[in-house]
Design goal:
Elements (H helix, E strand, L loop, with lengths): L2 H11 L4 H8 L3 H9 L6 H11 L3 H4 L21 H22 L1
Protein name: Transcriptional regulator with XRE-family HTH domain
Keywords: DNA-binding
Organism: Paenibacillus hunanensis
Length: 105
């Protein structure tokens, strides 16, 4: 299974549309589509974002390990944020990425 297929599998397993997932991790839905279909590679920052979001190892996403469970879950503690705080933080990250992208131009 390719990295794109694993990303699509995880998105469907967690019942997210490409738009919903994109909003949560700050990637445009067309970018999600291209990643899942293998039309563009996953960059380092995106790999980390997907690993953290789905709580899987990079070894799993890269196809090195077949088991999606991570061995040491202490590095991914359960969030103590309220849903409202999580939404606000996600919106902040999206805006920050847009600013960063704009400044690169």
């Amino acid at each position: 299974m390719s990295i794109g297929e694993r990303l699509k599998y995880l998105r469907k397993k967690h019942k997210y549309s490409q738009i919903e997932l994109g909003l949560k991790i700050g990637i445009d839905h067309s970018g999600i589509s291209k990643l899942e279909s293998g039309k563009r590679p996953v960059d380092h920052n995106e790999l980390i974002a997907f690993c953290n979001f789905y709580r899987v190892s990079a070894d799993y996403l890269l196809g090195i390990k077949k088991d999606e469970e991570i061995e040491n879950t202490e590095s991914f503690p359960e969030s103590e944020w309220t849903e409202e705080e999580q939404i606000a933080a996600e919106a902040f990250v999206i805006q920050l990425r847009k600013l960063r992208s704009h400044n690169k131009k």
